Amino acid sequence: MPIVRADELSYAALLRMIRTRAVAFLPVSALEVHGPHLPLGMDQAMARWMAEEAGRRFAERHPDWTVVQLPLLALGCDELPLPGTFEVAPRILYGALLAHGRSLARAGFENVVVTNGHGGPRHAAAIEAACRKLSRRYGMRMFSPSIAVLHRIVTGGRLARVEELLGRALNPHERVAVVSGEHAGTWETSFMLAERPQLVEPEYARLGQRQPPPFAPLVDAGERLATWRERRGGNGAHVREATHALGGGIGWLLNARFGYGGDEVSYKGDPSAASAELGHVFRELLAGDCLEIVEAVCLGGVTPESVRSIASDHAVIQPRFLLRVGIAAALAAVLLLAL
Predict the structure, then answer these.
(1) What angle do helix axes 146-154 and 276-298 make, rounded to 10 degrees?
(2) 112 pairs with which residues across the strands?
(3) DSSP secondary structure letters along 239-277
């Protein structure tokens, strides 16, 4: 099958390649603490799996194309700030992806898939924003399907498909656990039990349901705003979801650094419901759903800009948001002074 590793590709082979009929896969995730039981490279393992397995399937179904597997970019932001986590500022990740994308465009690649196993809001937002900017600037198709795929799974949108792949109904424990939040919870622990079980600490089976402490002021404000919109006939669900997510992230950050909300929380969800059986299903969903989006963009005419997740919906988590606010404030001040 036409699959090549970029780090093993010679310059002569690159020049011979028909790059208009090539798709490059770039995994992006950093090291991060995942509970007491999972390896620091959990997100990297998922990003690699999506790239390698979706790429393998694409090559199998489209033998006239070349699949290029790029080395993993080990950068991440909005990660759990505990010893063992390595993170950078969102602007660093955003800038690194812009640089990678420019190099790929210069090399003649028109199709680039960025896979990502980390759900940090500003991390995912930086990836998707960089993909949109590069696609517009260079006329390429660069996109990241991962968070859209992951979000649908962990929020229960694929339960019917899960049971179809299992060949049975989820038991009561599993049914609650798979939608109870995810960071080293049921899904990620299951993934690693299927992928490399020797890297999972046995205590996972004794870990119960945990959630990070939400930052109450933000969550309460979001609830009031959502209720206000609903009373006026609007939709408050989007506001509620966004503020709950941001409030959880801020609360978790404060917990890790200052002990906010009690004892240290290093995972979210219920690892005890995990199994290799669920892990194989999770892997199938990741690869299959990712492949569907890749084919839709590279072959079906779907625009790369339309591949968006919840991370692209909120202005406050976008890269350079504060810079733009500062510029706008400075311009407003100049106009006021001029008047």
Answers:
(1) 140
(2) 24, 142
(3) HHHHHHHHHHHHHHHHHHHH-TTSS----BB-GGG--HH
Q: Which residues of 235-260 are buried (b: 16+ CB within 10 A; e: fewer)?
A: ebeebbbbbbbbbbbbbbbebbeeeb
pLDDT in tens, 252-261: 999 999 999 9
Residues in the chain: 339
**Type of residue found at 11:** Y
262 and 302 belong to one structural domain: no
**Segment among 226-230, 286-290, 317-321 with least mean pLDDT:** 317-321
Q: Residue 270: its pLDDT value, please?
A: 97
Domain end: 277, 296, 315, which one? 277
Angle, helices 186-195 vs 42-61, to 10°: value is 70
pTM of the model: 0.90
Neighbouring-strand partners of residue 3: 67
Helix axes 121-138, 90-106, angle to 10 degrees: 30
Cβ atoms of 318 and 129 within 8 Å: the answer is: yes
Q: What's the pLDDT tens digit per position in 199-219?
A: 999 999 999 999 999 999 999
Contacts for 227 with CB less than 8 Å, ≥ 6 apart: 236
H-state helical runs in the chain: 11-16, 42-61, 90-106, 121-138, 146-154, 159-166, 172-177, 186-195, 216-231, 237-258, 276-298, 321-338
Does residue 122 belong to any structural domain of this protein? yes
- Measured CA to CA, the distance from residue 9 to residue 227 in angstroms comes to 56
Domain that holds residue 64: 3-152+283-326
> Widest CA span of the chain, in angstroms?
71
